[in-house]
Amino acid sequence: MRILLDRQSDASLYQQIYTHFRQGILSGSLPPDTRLPSTRQLARDLGVNRITVETAYGDLEAEGLVASKIGSGTYVLPPSPQLLIPVDEPDGPWPLWQRDLQAQGDLPGKNHLEEAAKSGSHPNPIAFAGGIGDPRLFPVDDYRKVIQAVLRRDGMAALEYGERNGYAPLRATIAHVLASQGITVRPENILVTAGSQQALTLVCQLLLKPGDTILVETPTYAGALDLFRLFHLKIVGIPVDGHGMQVEKLEKILQHQHPKLLYTIPNFHNPTGTCLSTPRRRQLLALADRYNVPILEDDFVGDLRYDGRTQPALKSLDPGGRVIYTSTFSKMLMPGLRVGFLAVEGPVYEGLVNTKRIVDLATSSLHQRAIESYVTVGSYQAHLRRTCQVYRRRRDGMVLAIHRHLPGEVQVDPPQGGLFMWLRLPDSLSTQKLQPLAVEEGVTFTPGHSFFPYSPDGEAYLRLNFAMQPPEAIEEGMRRLGKAIRKAAALPQDHSR
Length: 497
Ligand SMILES: Cc1ncc(COP(=O)(O)O)c(C=O)c1O
Known about the structure:
β8 (261-264), α11 (278-290) and β9 form a beta-alpha-beta unit. Helices cover 42% and strands 13% of the residues. The N and C termini lie far apart (60 Å). It is an alpha/beta fold. The chain contains 17 helices and 16 strands. It is globular and about 85 Å long. An eight-stranded mixed β-sheet has the order 4-11-10-9-8-5-6-7, with helices on both faces. A four-stranded antiparallel β-sheet has the order 12-13-16-15. It has a two-stranded antiparallel sheet with strand order 1-2. Bound molecules: pyridoxal-5'-phosphate. Pyridoxal-5'-phosphate is lined by residues 131, 195-197, 221, 223, 265, 270, 298, 300, 328, 330, 335, 340.
């Protein structure tokens, strides 16, 4: 073990050893049950007398921070909470550059969605705030078998960086799957990414610079808004109605704002669940082409359709190079795989591949190979079918439970797929008022303002994830939400909206 000892210091060597371990224990970097090095070993490593180490350990023991077990060694004890050093508290002030960062407000803020998911002290909270499917449906056993088979088959190759643009058979498989959705793209035009969040990041890195204007739907995916803020982009919103982005409002904005990119989620939009109508898709593409604006099409849950007719992807209407398409295995399979992809033609493709190479070298070769096997043998398709059946029932169950338990003035337009239901509260209510009461009742949702570029927009709305919970929890959750809404409505009038 290495401990930096200062032999010129006024503090004795035993004190320095004591302080080192004390700090480690109280800051949590040496958790309870950690075995400290033996006194003989540490004395040898540090070039000090064994008694010096024994004295330091003796003081730690006297303070109740460690206990020695005869014949076994010295172990860290759980420190008393009053002594714990807060994780973000330094010994002295932070260095000037850190304080400047803080003062300039240049640090990215907390994740709204994670904040919304906090469920207070209720013993049995029911969460509708997450952005993923139900982890209980993850095909863990099947995936374990695929990983083992891949390691047996490919050995070391499965653990190398692999091709920069992604594992060739996976790119071919993705191209094949896209073809079945009417998107004709060659494997050479697919770039495998670490989820679609990285796909969005790479596009921003390559195409945009601080101050550039980006057009988004309002509301839109909160993680995209966070990313665009990180890049210091000017975010301009186009409102969404029951048929997706109101494309008829787009031309004026294109004329006046000269955007560098248009980001859209045309299928089962996050958070509203709406789909962009086919005529609007054609109109959008024509306008973007006329004004020379690239479209970034985020198809994050395109395959989770429960009813209604599939509309053509914007990418399938693209004669080539106008639409940058991204999708992911996160929502339709498992988010922890961190595998998504981009599909685009033209010089921008090579630029994106090289940006990806610079940013993180490659996406996990093992997971790419495993997904390729999983899709090729048909397990992915079977998983999708099962998942869609379950989520369809949950969506229907939530709609019924909303009608049963929520006041009639709450408006909802059930989506034809995806994960989310978007609710409008009665006029006198805001989520600001509702959220603490809902947490008290033991139910969480994502407040609408998280999805708008500029607060306080969206206070009238909330997003529910209908896919995450089994039917009984949906029923009980809506009962609790209804109770919280009634309680909020009984509070004095809210003028914040
Ligand atoms: C609309 C949308 N796009 C992209 C992502 C990013 O997903 P991932 O990076 O896991 O593929 C999310 C995640 O919630 C999302 O909702």
